Structures are given as structure tokens and as C-alpha cells.
Amino acid sequence: MKEFFGFGGYQRPVEGYMSWQHLTFVTVLMVLMIASAVYLGRRNRSRSDQDKNKVLIITAILIDAFELFKIVLLCFRSGDPFDWLNNLPLFLCSIQLITIPLAAFTRGRLKESSLDFVLIFGVLGAVLGTYAAGNNYGSYPVLSFDNVVSGLTHSLAGFAALYIGFSGMVSMKKKNMPITFSILLGFCVAAFVANKLLDYNYMFLVSGDGTPYDILYNLVGGNAVLYPLLVVLLFILYITLFYFIYFLIQKKKSASAK
Fold first, then answer.
1. From the CB of residue 133, how many other CB atoms can be counted at a distance below 10 Å?
2. What pTM, to 2 d.p., does this model score?
3. N or C: which end of the chain has fewer CB within 10 A?
4. d(CA 231, CA 28)
């Protein structure tokens, strides 16, 4: 257990990013994520909004509990009570630590916009935070506390997104688009400020750090101004494309139903 939690540093060799151990572990997580979301979503689709929301409430509690436990243990492991400053929810994936509870516990347009945000970024974050997490799987053994908790939280975010879709909790109203965009841009600004103050790399706005963002970083030669702007632009383009495709599909469904 001491080795699993990394006290004194991991002694086992790191299997490596894209090793068969890495790919097997995250694939198992993705299969469980998809299967549970499809089953629970389809089962609850015809049930009341309150019943549907219970699953989101449990998901919100689980994802934040795992993350809180991780932060406490990392502070204890490092001996630095301020180590939590390096674990703020300011990555694209970790924004779900806030938006899933908002989707579960709020009402009105804030709830609808949070549901949209989770739907749009949940699965993307789950894939990027597991298959593309070279920063984690290149640094720690696959079956280690750091990677297991990271895998669980990213999978829970992906589960929430899929569940929202399969259970019929989808909002995706045009009037809520500004709020959804504001959530994203607000976290980007917070991440940029935190990076300056803490000398960190939240939202990967400083460098790619072994993730696919390295492609963009190398493309602009690591330009300290152009790179973060392009990262944020990439987020905006993705969310715009998601809305466009969703509305296009809904339009075609309406046309075929007539």
C-alpha cells in the first residue's frame, strides 16, 4: 500500500506512455464508463427529472470526493500543506469538478448551461485525460495512486457527459450558449492568472507538458503569447463546432419527422 500511494517515491519502473499496460488500463476504464452510462441513461430516460438527477448527484459527490482525497494525500505525501495550489480545478478536465455539481444541484439556466458544458467537454476530457495523458503515464507506474485517481475522475466526467445524453437531460438551448462560453473563458482567465502567480501550467497554457498540446506548442515555437491564445481559440472552436453539429443533427431530425 505504501508503494501504491507513492510514499517515499515510486520504486517500480514506469511502464511508459502508450505502453500496453497504459492502454489496457485506460481502455478498461473507458469500457466501464460507456457501458454504465448507456445502461443507466437508457434505464432512466423515461423517468422523472428528479430520478434522472439522482445519478448526477452521486457522480458529483464521487468525483469531488476522489479529488479531495487526492489533494489531501498529496499534501501529506509531499509534506507541504500548500501543495493544493498545484491541484486547483483549472485544467479543462478538472473544470468538471465544478460543472458536474452545478449541473446536479442548481436549477434554471445555470443548470442547463452546466449540463451543456459537461456534455460538450466530458467525453473529450475523459479521452485526453487517459489515452493522451503522457504527463501522467510517462511519470508514474500505471497502477499507482496518481494514475488510478486521475483515471477515475476523468472517467466519471466522461460518464456524466454520456449519461446526460442517453438519459435525455440534454439542454443545448441557444439562449444558454453565452453562459456556456463564459464558463470556459472564465476558467481560462483564472488559469492564466494562476500560472503567472504560481509558476504552473494550468490549462496547459504554458506548454504541452507531454500531451497533444505539444503539437501546437512546437508549431508556434513555444511563443509565450501566441501559444496560449491559440489554445484558448482551440477550445472556442471546439465548443462552436459541437454546437453546430448538434443543431445540424436536430434540424435534420425535425425535417425527417415531418
1. 24
2. 0.90
3. C
4. 30
